[in-house]
Input
Amino acid sequence: MGKKLLAAVITGSLFFTFTAGYTCAEKTVSALSIIATVKNVSVEKDVIAVGESVQLEFEWSTGAKQELFFTSNDESVATVDQDGIVTGIGNGTAEITVSHSNYGSDKTITITVSENVRESVCYNTSELTLGTKLYKYDKLHYDGKNIGMGINIVNDKGGYDLAWPSEEDYILPFDAELVGIDGLTIYLAPELENVKYIDGRTLSVGDVIDTSSHLLCYDYHINKCVFPVFLPEYYEKYIGEGEIRVKDIDHENKTITLEAVKENAEKGDVNGDGSFSVADVVEFQKWLSAPDTNGAYLDTADFNSDGRLDVFDLCLMKRKLINTVSEDI
Output
């Protein structure tokens, strides 16, 4: 019986099939690994400063990666070494070409170099402080020191997006400011057209809060709850109706206590039911024995308008109650 040898090359692997008589057996005589090619080339920043370097990044097809070669069409603008690191030399635009050592089509990427561009900075999150200005393409690296494992980024929907530099360095897509640190979490606030911010460091006791704003930088206390930021949706939910004011500030500990002041509230209406009665006196007396931040309308008990709540206000409140009862009689 004759023997017939068939050779098949399938995506880079070489197989030999032997056929003898009515039986057929396949045996791999030699197998070459499937060779991968670059499907796409990118950089984290394609507009760089003079003297700044960026690493080319590659998306590979399946298989063993082959050696790559890099060239720049204008080395007076940008150079590239054989590790794929591009360095800005002078103003202008350069095309970087990526070539394969075996087979595969060349890939190119355009890099712009400008002396007016700020060189990006990589920050360890533990070294950041409130008020730090960060810029587009800056990188945040979590260095394992209990600050910045997670990042809350204010978005234009009135909420926050979450990033995890503990898993992968975070590259800023916009200019921003570090506006809050809450243990492992830090807060970034970009300049967004549809979002207003109020920096807690600028507030004073008695200030009225714009309830369409995000409150940032301090911890915000209300009704035994503590918030590292305060969003527009929180005002009515956690404080109640009425004008929102700053009740107290502790700049040393970076805390602010908020309260709601009902418009045209009657003097002494500490329970906010719309009228002054003995119930308000009882509630205020209990509060004086164990003061806390509860009570949305406690400011109505400041009868002598000295900015403090004490027994002198309680005496004036009782006097008003007596007068009120006398008038009813």
